[in-house]
Amino acid sequence: MSHDDSPLLRQSPVPRMTPDTAGQLNRLRKEQRRNSVLFRVFAVGSGIAILASLLFERHLSWLMAITIMVMLMGALLRHRMAQQTRHNIAQWEALMRAQQRQAAQQEAWRRMRELLQCDLDEDAFLRALLDTTAEVLGSARISLWFLDSEDHTLTCRMALDPALNGLTLSPLGLDSYLASLVQNPCLVTHDAQHDERLSGLGKYLRAHSIHSMLDVGIFVGGELRGAICCESTCSREWHGDEITTLMGFSGLLSQFSESLRRREVEHDLYRQLHHDEVSGLATLRGLLERLQALTQRGEAFHLLVLRLGGLGHINETLGQQAGDEAIRQVAEKLKERLTELQGSIHIGRLPANRLLIAIPGQTDESLRHYCLERLLSMGENSWRIFGTPSQLRFNAGVARYPLDAQDIESLLQRAELAVQHARETPPPHLAFYTSQLSDWEQRLNRLERELRTALDEHQFRLYLQGQFDPEGGLAGAEVLLRWQHPREGLLTPGSFIAEAEYSGLIRPMGQWVLDQACALLGGALHSSELSLSVNVSVQQLHDDAFMTHLAQLLERHDFAPRRLILEVVESLLVTPGIAARLNALRELGVRLALDDFGTGYSSLRYLQDFRVDEIKIDKVFVDAITPHRDAPLVRSIIALGKALELRVVAEGVENAAQQDYLCARGIDFLQGYYLARPEPVDTFLRRLEQPPPK
């Protein structure tokens, strides 16, 4: 429920005690007093008339009869006038009380709306809601009950009566109560202990002497998640405006729950991307802001890449957990030794077995001496990993800002080149970047020439990796590219895609992949319902000819456009003008998927701004699923996809435990080595000849 949709906001403005209203009430009260005086005068006059009639009763008996009739009529008139006046006063007093209640309710609503905009934690917001509800309803028995979606128990999350906190009600007997809240979000009763809807709560009601109840359901994502409960130990009439107020507060609580869940997911995603859980260090993404701050200040610093040798052997002999433990120990030792240097030292972890260190305020010679004496000498230590003696080796490559590069990306490339050179040199395995190490530029030029030759000589190969539904049925595939290099054999995209993007060759390569995929959908796969997912780069989308070429492919191969899924990376969404391109693609009938979801920019916000059909959970999140460990981020992403009516695909499924976990949480499709490795088109097509799983 949005703020503007709340029942409270649909009420007319609260009437105030105006001078006219107060004057009317005063006039009614004066009228009552005047009528009372008139009646007394009339009664005295009537008494005199009776006395006179007694003196002359023999001659004036008819006068006495008239006098008695007048007296009776006067008494009746006085009674009716007094009764009407009391009724009018009671009505006006009830109106004034209602006006005062509504004024208090709208003031309370305003305060709660303001609190909703603040970043309050859950306890603070719930406490404020309870206190405000008690204030406007005049009740001391206010409590919040949350429904467990797994075992359907009701637990008191917070109450003004401390004795209720943490109290749990068994699901036995709650069916009629919960069904009543689902059918009608408001449950009102003046005789709780004899209300059939509350028959399962009889023990609780008797134990707390509850006679009247006003309960309003709390709904999140359209599902009942709990109730706000107002109880009274005596019979009480619940006014309509009080019911409306409590329903409005329930809507605010639903909004807060959604906001809190969104904040938690965003926080977890941010932490996942900026903080390495294994080493306790920042990731490269987490370091970028700090490094860019150094460059903006023009502060000279050394960027050092430290490579850990021997980590692979530990993983193979002692297991992955031992490898993680080795990284943790190295990170702790590294932080301990770097505190000896002056200045602000920034440490982070790069993928695999490398650490990144930014060290300002040192000369080349002082840093060289420090690396030899304190960092590289760590390889001489006896490392014990889970009690087992282990050997680690360290190589270091250093690049200097601004001497070796003017931007972080180039500086990191040069430091990586230096550490690669250090591995190939004799101990102490330390290398500073020099212009002689610019082999990467030569390699880039060589690769560009070879990629052009590969396009001309048809050296690229199409591979497909199957995507499966939870029952194991083949639903489609992701289209992957391989390069059959004449000397180096079959190469994966990681060996050449970066150079292809840098040189602009990604556009003709991407066009070739798209051509092959559409030919498959209109040819060998024409009679099937399988879909194919194709990665599209930002360069392709910015190419004005891309849309025209795609429309021609759809017309030429004559297949349902929805069977073609174009995957775009999340970071693409921040590109100016991209929204119009994506909308144009959807108008052609193809579907859009957000690849590597959660690893890009502000995922949740962009899901609201851009229309996509599918999100793909990145392998980094799936890796967190183990038999003995929950994966809350994966659960949250699946739930988010369901709420937005998107297909959710999990990438990188590598074992049965991950598959079972994802299927139990409602994943739509799965992809990974455990189900199928990337394979040539012919091998994939043979899958279609196999019978479907039972």
UniProtKB/TrEMBL annotation:
Name of this protein: Uncharacterized protein
Region ranges (Disordered): 1-27
Lineage: Bacteria, Pseudomonadati, Pseudomonadota, Gammaproteobacteria, Oceanospirillales
Coiled-coil features, chain-numbered ranges: 405-457
Molecular function via GO: cyclic-guanylate-specific phosphodiesterase activity
One Pfam family, short name: GGDEF
CDD domains, per database record: EAL
Listed transmembrane segments: 37-54, 60-77
Keyword field contains Phosphoprotein: no
InterPro entries to which the protein is assigned, alphabetical: Cyclic-di-GMP_PDE-like, EAL_dom, EAL_sf, GAF, GAF-like_dom_sf, GGDEF_dom, Nucleotide_cyclase, Rev_trsase/Diguanyl_cyclase
Keywords from the UniProt entry: Coiled coil, Membrane, Transmembrane, Transmembrane helix
